[in-house]
Amino acid sequence: MKASITYKEISDFIERKFNVRPVFTAVDAKSVEVSYKPHSLLPAIGVKLHIDAMRKDVVCLSYECGTPASLMIAGVVAYFEEKIPNGLEVNTTDKRINIYPQRFKQIERVLEYVALSNITFEENAANVALTMEN
Q1: Contact assessment for residue 123 and residue 10, using Cβ atoms and an 8 Å cutoff
Q2: How far apart are CA 114 and CA 134, in angstroms?
Q3: Largest Cα–Cα distance in the chain?
């Protein structure tokens, strides 16, 4: 089974929830750049996410960014450390993120029937492939 979500849909959702509108740009099939311009007089802040490895139980990402973005990410992670969901591990020293889908209560029931098999990035959308589980 394949699902696709456009970058516009993701940006709209984030804007509704957090009053911030990020811009998504596909770099290649396994990388996407996310940027945000906080003010018209300030430069955009960007982070490039790359999918390093994937199994049905974990998605391993790395990220690249400049020093200002890196410091902001480290500060946000430290500030929200207790509120970061159980299935998300962020290592700001190594710039790595591990996502364990089965640990998220919101999708626990769904994962009884399907497993994540692939994520790819295209010009206007992110694609997720799922396989049926026994």
Answers
A1: no
A2: 9
A3: 54
- State the CB neighbour count (10 A cutoff) for residue 22: 19
Whether the Cβ atoms of residue 64 and residue 47 lie closer than 8 Å to each other = yes
Q: How far is 123 from 74, CA to CA, in rounded Å?
A: 29
126 touches 32 (CB < 8 A): yes
Contact 72, 88 (CB under 8 A): no
Asked if 30 and 50 touch (Cβ cutoff 8 Å), the reply is: yes
58-65 β-sheet, strand order: 23-28, 31-36, 45-55, 58-65, 96-99, 88-91
Both tokens of 100, joined, read 């364990």
Evaluate whether 49 touches 63 at the Cβ level (below 8 Å): yes
pLDDT digits (tens, 9 = 90+) for 24-50: 999 999 999 999 988 888 888 899 999
Quote the pTM value.
0.85
User: Distance between CA 34 and CA 113 in Å, rounded?
Assistant: 31
| Backbone torsion region of residue 24, taken as left when φ is above 0, otherwise alpha when ψ lies between -120 and 50, otherwise beta | beta
Q: Read off the amino acid at residue 2.
A: K
